[in-house]
């Protein structure tokens, strides 16, 4: 209400309004990142990061097809060509060996997607460094996930986050880019505000990607609750894993010593597509929500299928036909987790 009373719903300043700056500071402290630039969506974050990295027409960008379509749409919006890379069945993130095979003379950047909150492998960043590729992390689903103690979204040149309604931290709509590079931070601030710094002095190509003060105020409050919400997700996920550990034909998500999840999604893989469908139907009959992310994968959607009809991603297609995400969000009680696991175990 204070934001409304002060008539400060948004700001055209290149560095945002006071509440935008407060949110950026809070998120930067949490991530351990020198700069955070707030924008109005995760898609906007990806698009702005690509523009700041100088990606454009004539460039190729490597990314998985097993992701939300916004990742690929941001590449196309920048004028570049998306080149889809296969994933690993074990954790649904980019297969570094297939990434090596897909690098060509036009490759300018790679977007590793920390899907479901699962951090990508170190090899991706090592390969990118050797080949002088810009690394733009899609951390829209992984706020709070860590790799070797470092927050996802801080491992590459830039990391992109989303505060959409379904995310672990929400402002209804919103996003942010994290970077330690002073030059990129300055450019990103211009890009989110029509390329302007002072008045109408457009210096680079930019858009209206500003985060409203109202959304920033909500996000700042949510930052104070993030730790508790992540703890609740972890409790539910660990309970789900214990209850499903003996169920045959169901592959469970598993952390490693290096990789700690935020448990944005608890995604299992069934042995067959038929088994996945049977589980989904049984859960629906029991009044339990579940969802498939993502089937079809991006390269099989009508738009992208036309652009790349010969793309073959066997692991991606295997996963798309078998994965199912089960509820472990903070609104789920222990009894709900137990009922979900019992429904799966009874199949």
In short:
The chain is α/β, with parallel strands linked by helices and 347 residues long.
Write the layout of secondary structure elements.
Blueprint: H1 2-5, H2 18-31, E1 35-39, H3 42-52, E2 60-64, H4 70-77, E3 81-85, H5 96-102, E4 107-110, H6 122-130, E5 134-138, E6 146-147, E7 150-151, E8 158-162, E9 175-179, H7 182-191, H8 213-223, H9 226-244, E10 250-251, E11 259-260, E12 266-270, H10 273-285, H11 302-307, H12 314-320, E13 323-326, H13 334-345
Parallel strand pairs: 2-3, 2-4, 4-5, 5-8
Antiparallel strand pairs: 1-9, 6-7, 6-11, 8-9, 10-12, 12-13
Helix pairs in contact: 2-8, 3-4, 3-7, 9-13
Cα-to-Cα separation, first versus last residue:
50 Å
Q: What is the CATH architecture descriptor of the largest domain?
A: 3-Layer(aba) Sandwich
Shape: globular
Proportion of residues in helical segments: 25-40%
């Amino acid at each position: 209400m204070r934001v409304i009373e002060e008539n400060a719903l948004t700001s055209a300043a290149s560095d945002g309004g006071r509440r935008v700056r407060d949110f950026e500071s809070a998120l930067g402290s949490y991530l351990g990142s020198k700069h955070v630039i707030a924008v109005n969506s995760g898609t906007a974050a990806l698009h702005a990061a690509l523009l700041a990295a100088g990606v454009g027409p004539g460039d190729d960008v490597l990314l998985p097809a097993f992701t939300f379509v916004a990742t690929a749409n941001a590449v196309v919006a920048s004028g570049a060509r998306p080149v889809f890379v296969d994933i690993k069945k074990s954790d649904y993130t980019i297969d570094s060996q297939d990434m090596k095979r897909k690098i060509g003379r036009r490759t300018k950047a790679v977007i590793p997607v920390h899907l479901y909150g699962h951090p990508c492998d170190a090899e991706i960043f090592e390969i990118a460094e050797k080949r002088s590729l810009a690394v733009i992390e899609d951390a829209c689903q992984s706020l709070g996930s860590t790799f070797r103690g470092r927050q996802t979204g801080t491992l590459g040149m830039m990391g992109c986050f989303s505060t959409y309604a379904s995310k672990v931290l929400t402002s209804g709509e919103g996003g942010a880019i994290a970077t330690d590079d002073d030059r990129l931070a300055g450019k990103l601030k211009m890009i989110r505000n029509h390329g302007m710094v002072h008045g109408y002095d457009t210096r680079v190509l930019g858009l209206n990607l500003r985060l409203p003060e109202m959304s920033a105020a909500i996000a700042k409050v949510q930052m104070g609750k993030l730790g508790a919400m992540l703890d609740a997700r972890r409790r539910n996920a660990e309970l789900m894993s214990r209850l499903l550990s003996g169920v045959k034909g169901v592959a469970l998500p598993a952390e490693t010593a290096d990789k700690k999840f935020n448990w944005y999604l608890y995604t299992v893989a069934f042995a067959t597509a038929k088994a996945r469908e049977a589980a989904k139907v049984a859960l629906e009959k029991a009044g339990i929500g579940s969802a498939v992310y993502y089937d079809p994968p991006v390269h099989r959607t009508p738009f992208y299928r036309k652009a790349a009809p010969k793309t073959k991603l066997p692991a991606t297609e295997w996963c798309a036909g078998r994965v199912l995400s089960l509820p472990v969000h903070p609104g789920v009680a222990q009894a709900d987790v137990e009922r979900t696991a019992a429904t799966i175990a009874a199949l």
